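so i finally got all the pieces together for this one. its two components total, 422 residues if u count the protein bits. some of the lines might not be protein, just check the labels. i wanna see the whole assembly predicted at once instead of chain by chain like last time, that was a mess tbh
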Amino acid sequence: MSTETTATGIGPVEGSGAHEGSYGVDNPAPFIEPPRKRTKKTPRSTRGNFEMYGWLFMRLSGIVLVVLVLGHLLIQLVLDGGVSKVGFAFVAGRWASPWWQVWDLAMLWLAMLHGANGLRTIINDYAESVKSRLWLKGLLYTATVWTIVLGTLVIFTFDPNIR
Amino acid sequence: MATPTLDKADAAGTPEPGFADSPYITVTLRVRRFNPEVAAEATWQDFQLEMDPKERVLDALHKIKWDVDGSLTFRRSCAHGICGSDAMRINGKNRLACKTLIKDINPEKPITVEPIKGLTVLKDLVVDMEPFFQAYRDVMPFLITKDTNEPTRERLQSAEDRERFDDTTKCILCAACTSSCPVFWNDGQYFGPAAIVNAHRFIFDSRDEAGEQRLEILNDKDGVWRCRTTFNCTDACPRGIEVTKAIQEVKRALITRRL
């Protein structure tokens, strides 16, 4: 029974630069900082159904978006001569019909809210400091509201006779 | 039909490797050492041991601690996969050291042994389990009944009702699942798989009457909705509990009871 020890520490793990691929001896898994502990100062989070509705919305809007987006891509890029037909006149013709107005409006709102909620959960998961969370979410909500308002405005006030 | 006979003849002719002379092989154990009284950073230390490949990683750790370096620190109690003390990260995967045979994790290469992730390392392989047990306590892991059910006589339950939560009764609170969860790694406020599994054990128990309270607790913004369904917890569980499935069942119970 040999109990010889080679006490050759191979140095600190951090900063080895290797973090891709499978972990092994030469490529150890990265060290993860300990999380914030729950203390008396940790705010008791509000109880409510918001997260549940957010979770449900992601699933339901995802299903609807599959139909809306694939239909949109099919009409725009495949049918009737493909992408070359798309121009001002094509858009004007489509938005003359309330059906396509509602389609585009639903696609705009659902896609923006779906994407924004997804990014919100990613920020919650990965942004660590309160400050960076606040800034990233502020930027996200501003961009979302701006895009939704602008897109909705265009769909409803589109003037085919603009010069 | 002929194949097994041939195999048998072959096996009888040549002695099985390992049993010919000595079963022992040289194994390198690469342990992540951390002692806050000596250095701020953790370092890897190699130990070369003569081990029978049919022994467990825990036996190798014992050999180091008892014969080579008594300062090596790790937790273990029963050493037979029931107490849940010796969950650690072996070759990058959360396992119980007492249930991992050396021959199953390629002893040709050095075997890495690290503490479980997402919890503060106190020394070597020992982590501070307090945030983990705090989340466990938060879901009220005990039977709650109304006053009309005095604990004076046996309360019977049908086999079907018992089967409903059988999987989640197997939890030994080793933290292998919670410390494999990427959401918990980054933000220890998340309840984590183990707490949800232990809530599931009572929510779906027909004798328990506080399921609604427990669901309300897990409806929290750090509750079940933070689960990203990555299945790390199911892969890590040394008891084979379908952890992600249990979490999904709690989500479904919340949705069907609220809508």
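Residues 1-20 of chain A have pLDDT under 50 and may be disordered.
Helices of chain A lie at 50-78, 88-95, 98-126, 130-157.
anyway lmk what u think
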